[in-house]
Structure formats: C-alpha cells, structure tokens
Amino acid sequence: MKKASRRVTFTVEYDPSLVLEKDILPIFKRYDGDKIHIIKGVNDMYQHCKNCHELKNEKEYNLQGGFDQYGRKKLRNECRKCQNENDRILTLLKKENGPPSENCHLCGKEKKLFLDHCHKTNKFRGWLCNDCNSGLGKLGDDIPSLERGIKYLKGEINDKD
Questions:
Q1: Which of 18, 49, 66, 130 is least enclosed by beta carbons within 10 angstroms?
Q2: CB burial class (10 A; 0-12, 13-18, 19+) of residue 76?
C-alpha cells in the first residue's frame, strides 16, 4: 500500500550576514514576476549547456528547483531549448508507454517511479525508482562501468587495477 505524500514548500530568505566565510560566492538577482531570486554566479555570465555544449548567457537557463541553506538558487546545467526538447521527449515517451508499473523494474521495490530512457537514442527502457535511476546515471549509463562495479563488489578489483 502506498503512503500518501504531502508536499511541503517553504522559502528561505537570503541574509548575507548568515553565510559562512567558506560559502561566500558571487551572487546576482533575477526578477521573476513579483519574486526576486538570489542566484549563485554573476550577472550576464556564460556557461556551457550539458546537452548541446554551446556557451550561452545565463538568461538562457532556468533556475533549479531548490535553495541552498542560505536561500540562494543555482542555474540548471541545460539551456531552456534543450530542457524544452527533453521535456517534449519525456511527455511523448510517457504517452507511448502508459502509466508506470507498481514496482521498480530494477530493484522491484514499491516506490515512486520515474521514466528511464536512453539519452542518446531516446528509447524507453522502463520505470525506475530514483535510487536505481540515479545509480545507473552515476555510473554513466554505461555497461563497462557497471561490469567494473560488479567486479569490484565481487572483490575482483584491487587498488592496482
């Protein structure tokens, strides 16, 4: 039986006097309607999109969802154009592959599931929980890396390999 989840939202007010010296970073403000966001970085900075690899102005990037402990936000690492294209692909794959199953296709646990797909071919692979999806992603969605991980767990790899 699935537990009902309740989403709690809150806003952290940015107070520069609370920022520890080791955490001081350049910041700038972005206005979004009636909200002012404090963003890590500098106004008119440029960064590379993780998908298209183009160098683009910060205005081409949306904000990440959460705040850090000081109330600052970060820019996403993919530009709006790539983010919109990825959202379009996910919507299409969800429509084509129906609602998620009850259990994660990898670990079998009953958890909230997310659509997993190949980012190179855009082919649907299955429905995974966040832990399994993140684990595969952190190993590069790459069979040689997973095989190396299996060897490591079996004790077949030592510090000389």
A1: 66
A2: middle
Residues 59 and 104 in one domain: no
Answering whether pTM is above 0.85, one says no
Range name among 12-16, 58-62, 65-69, 85-89 with the lowest pLDDT average? 12-16
Angle at 100 between CA 99 and CA 101, to 5 degrees: 120
Average pLDDT over residues 34-43: 92
- Domains of the chain: total: 2
Q: Which of 60, 17, 63 is nearest to 39 (CA)?
A: 63
Q: Which residues pair with 48 in a beta bridge?
A: 55
Q: Are residues 105 and 145 in the same domain?
A: yes
CA distance 124 to 128: 11
